[in-house]
Design goal:
Blueprint: H1 6-18, H2 23-36, H3 48-58, H4 63-79
Helix pairs in contact: 1-2, 3-4
């Protein structure tokens, strides 16, 4: 999976030079990204679904949220794509 475009990383580095206050922060991020490269293998831990089911049983007030995450993880695993979860507003 491609995480970023090398040209965008270059532009990010140029932005660091334009703002001296955040220069070291931007340089550190750009250096880390350049070192790790733009491609990453995307996987889940072996027991991610077990952990989510355990969370569902230990936090019954969040069952709806946990079910949403479980569904998203199952879909991502089945389709071999990154997980996508619609933002959820938790109130209370």
């Amino acid at each position: 999976m491609r995480l970023f475009d090398p040209f965008e990383l270059y532009q990010f580095g140029q932005m660091a030079a334009a703002n001296p206050e955040r220069d070291s922060y931007h340089k550190r991020i750009a250096t880390e990204l350049a070192r790790s490269g733009p491609y990453k293998k995307y996987t889940f831990e072996q027991n991610v679904l077990e952990k989510l089911c355990e969370l569902r049983s230990t936090a019954p007030n969040f069952t709806v949220v946990t079910e949403c995450v479980i569904d998203a993880v199952c879909l991502a695993v089945e389709c071999a794509k990154p997980i996508r979860i619609t933002p959820i507003l938790l109130v209370g």
